[in-house]
Specification:
Blueprint: H1 15-48, E1 57-59, H2 65-81, H3 86-89, E2 92-97, E3 104-107, E4 112-116, H4 121-139, H5 143-153, H6 173-177, H7 180-192, H8 206-216
Parallel strand pairs: 1-2, 2-4
Antiparallel strand pairs: 3-4
Helix pairs in contact: 2-4, 4-7, 5-8, 7-8
């Protein structure tokens, strides 16, 4: 009967031993990297799942039922108008306060619109659409390509800043109305609500509203 030969104690490792050890280490590293990549992929898939589906309006506990109903109605109009950009709109949060400097404000860091209540239907709808238009500026990369055309339609020099940087905490009404970003938001109000229920000092040309309408529908300048 054959006997197992005991290993040679103190034997120096051969080139074959070193090669096999290197291959084992490489396989271990490759498997570890694969596991990390799979875990990262699964994490990204899970994180992105919350953004799948149509854009949502998310009122918090401060929003009463009447405002929530009006906001949802207006949100549907907004989404119907900007149908070509659902992929970048995502979720927008809504909160209500009784004291605010201005009708409403948008926080791009949290995609939150804060609106002052109480208010008339016209005031609330106009404020909501205006702030959601600002959300488009921050959430939709394609918005930047539309800006030069909008400036031209407004008869503004092409080098006109889209908004002051930094934006002052308070602005006179006349200065506010001169900011292209605010003019765009008012054009969105005119488009979504088929008019401007609450007049402002922001001057709009019919051509500028048409530019926003074409962009909202995903039509290029060549398709005018």
């Amino acid at each position: 009967m054959a006997t197992r030969r005991p290993p040679d104690e103190g034997r120096a490792p051969s080139p074959g031993d070193a090669a096999r050890s290197g291959r084992r280490a490489w396989r271990h590293t490759a498997l570890l990297l694969l596991a990390v990549a799979l875990a990262a992929s699964m994490w990204r898939a899970g994180a992105g799942a919350t953004h799948q589906g149509p854009p949502r309006l998310l009122p918090d506990a401060s929003v009463g039922s009447d405002l929530a109903a009006l906001a949802e109605e207006t949100w549907d109009l907004f989404l119907g108008t900007f149908a070509a950009h659902h992929g970048c709109i995502g979720d927008v949060r809504l909160r209500a306060v009784t004291a605010l400097h201005g009708r409403a404000v948008y926080d791009p860091a949290t995609a939150t619109v804060t609106v002052q209540v109480p208010g008339t239907r016209a005031m609330l709808q106009s404020a909501l659409v205006h702030e959601w238009a600002h959300h488009l500026e921050f959430a939709c990369p394609a918005h930047g390509a539309m800006r030069p055309t909008f400036l031209a339609a407004q008869r503004l020099p092409p080098e006109t800043p889209w908004r002051p940087d930094p934006l002052p905490a308070t602005l006179p009404a006349g200065r506010w109305a001169e900011i292209p970003s605010e003019q765009f938001a008012e054009a969105a109000v005119a488009l979504v609500l088929e008019g401007r229920p609450v007049p402002t000092n922001a001057h709009l040309t019919p051509e500028a509203i048409d530019v926003v309408a074409r962009w909202a529908a995903g039509r290029s300048e060549a398709g005018r």
